[in-house]
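Quick one: structure tokens for this chain, please?
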Amino acid sequence: MAPQNRVLVPDDGRSVRYGKSTTEREHIPMGDRVITLFRFTDNKPEYKNPNWQARCFLDGKTRQVSTRQEDVRKARSVAKKWYATMLARIDDGLPTERIHKHPHLFDEVAQDVLKEWKRYSEDGTRHESYHKDHLGRYNRYIKPFFKKDYVEDITTPRLVEWQNWRQKKRIKSDILHVGELKKAYTVIFQILKVSQEMGYIKQLPTKPRTVLRQLASSKNTPSRATFTTAEYKKLLTGSRRRIREAKNYVKNPPEIGGGWIKILKDRMYLHYFIIFLAHTGVRPGEANRVRHLNIKMHKKKDDTKCYLSIFVKGKKTDRDCYGKYGAYFAYKALCENVCPNHKPDDLVFPRSPRGGLRELLNETGLRFNQNGDRRASKSFRHYYIMSAVAGKVNQKALSIQCDVSPTIMRDHYARHATVHLFKYDLLKVVDIQSP
């Protein structure tokens, strides 16, 4: 026997688009609104779906969800509950997306956080790759483990379980690098902080020890790979040689290979990027967020007194900082040779030249320091700070310039100052008078 009230509103004619025999429809009145139940009954397998779909127009939007029910009576019940839940959320000013999910699910909170990060990347608040990097890290190494967890269940023991699971996902090395683990924990704890703000949890769990700290001694703070002055000069000499080589190939192209105009620009870009970092002390990620409108050039008669004033969107706080004369002339040459037609809102360094820097470090034999620590773009920030420490720059001023706490300055920089920084003072001949 056919169910009663098969059609409660006049036929709207939409079934004609698919053929009258391809779609079943039911209408459920909800006050002055109507929920439409429908399912496709086309004979073609790719179009046939036995489950009923629910659709309605509410709060200016057409909304649709699968009831996941083949029985029409059960589908009606699911559709009514779905509609009522949306009404309640709209009245409370809450979002109505993904209402079939539980709001306390870790993945549900994560999707809202990732959506916010995407907006930050698009409007320039964060670097353009900020959302992409965190999204990839979340989808590969966080979501697969926590996708069925509620935020209330993310405790310290649970984080230890994830950490052990994450350790087994290594591909290139047996030990999980502490830097990568810290980045993953940044994503996890940002999600948990939002959960705390929403009232889902009362307090954050304690972060467990990292894998490396479990395996290594906790007494010695790890050193940070930097350069001596001689090594820094050697690196720039190698960079200039590579630029001259590219210029020569632009004028006289070799028989094999091409693209030397682009290679020349890339090498000049890398050269100016290195000098900018080494003469400002900003983090590489901060340099990637600086726009031309954030930089003001201060020209002086004495070239060594020229400098830049820079507004930086920092890791912790936004700040103003200064770039020494090297940064001044590097920025000037960058504008002339690499981006002569730049606009004020353009990024000064829109990308980090990781591949080119790695190649340059390998060519000059400076990829690793004497301790075997690998050097990267952050090493130029360490070079700036260590040189300032050796030059007895006021540590308060240095702390503000580099956005580093006095504790970090003491434990990670001054603590690891090497004799190379004080070479000339130590080798200075002192006339010792005999008594």
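The radius of gyration is 31 Å.
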